[in-house]
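FORM 7B - TANDEM STRUCTURE REPORT

SECTION 1: FIRST PROTEIN
SEQUENCE AND TOKENS:
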Amino acid sequence: MAEAFGTDDRKAVESYCRGHAIEFEWQGDGALRTWQRRSAVVRHSQTGQRCWFNQIAFLNEWTMDPEVHEYLVDTYGEDGLPFNTRFGNGDPIGADVVQVIDGVYEKYIAREPWQTGDLFLVDNIRTAHGRESFEGPREVLVAMADAVHLAGRSPASAVTDG
């Protein structure tokens, strides 16, 4: 809990969760289970453009190594996975859907070899980003501005308004 929330204080964690529309449940062993409902699409604050903005291709049970997935489901059950993404109504997302999304990401990926002194700026709403494996030393510094607050937004608002 302290690693994820920066504190072991249950009341502080509960307050944070309530303030960010994160549902939570304390487990019998003291572990914390959280879940939240967010839109898969949001409007960009500057352009108004609808943007794909979610974790389905990264934090989904089908992005795990199959052996790890099988072990975790056997040990903790389907609802006990350390992370997962589902449809807005709570239905599971099939491996086939995740595979199609991964294919779209792969089709449009732009790989850029880094060189010493490079600076990379990313609009986190408009651009999916990540890193591939590498070898050798590396230092990455991150600065963020203009946080997007999704807690007060209806899960469907970004796709139904306008």
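SECTION 2: SECOND PROTEIN
SEQUENCE AND TOKENS:
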Amino acid sequence: MKTLAILMCMQIAAAISDSSRPTTDTERDANRKPAETLAFMGIKAGDKVADYAPGSGYFTRLFSDVVAGKGHVYAAVPGALYEYPNIVKGTDEILQFAAKHPNVTVSFGSVNDTVRYPEKLNVFWISQNYHDLHDSFMGPVDMAAFNKAVYDALVPGGTYVVLDHSAAPGSPADVTDTLHRIEPGTVRREVESAGFVFDGESKILANPGDPRTAGVFDKSIRGHTDQFLYKFRKPAR
């Protein structure tokens, strides 16, 4: 196990130091803490990973390096997000990357369609977009059905990792739309209801100084929001 952990750390370090990473990615490393995030996820060579709502592909590119030739990354773009210019631009960048990296597949479709994959996954990752699933422009999504689909997409023992902006306790339901935040407890309740077991959290992106009263794009807090990172596991049996 110790040897595997060392190997995983080496793979992650190599991915982060890859000279082909765009400057727009490396400039975000200080705020996104990729080494700690990927180590917490437990991602390794050979894994099959879903990067759900991948944005501009920051994590898609890192995942591609780590899982290497025997692994695969499924960058799943739900159609409701593809209406936004920044998502269109970011997706185009992922498509250009995928054209040169055969271990990356980009898919488009409805929320339900983009949780279906041609093989079972080891890891399902959603970063700063779980809260969007609660908003009207996304459906809103039937969260019980969505999380059950994630459960079904994973191998036994597979992991479901959620990173999002934290909302204050007792926030109104529309905080997911007004401030682009969500209560961590809401995520736990919904994901565990699908049969997942809570497998830990990381405080690496927590910011106790964030009053959680401003939207995540507000210049007073952008890039420094209080974020929670949760890992859930599908039971091995």
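SECTION 3: OBSERVATIONS ON SECOND PROTEIN
The CA atoms of residues 7 and 224 lie 31 Å apart.
DSSP finds nine helices and seven strands in the chain.

SECTION 4: SIGNATURE
Preparer initials: ____
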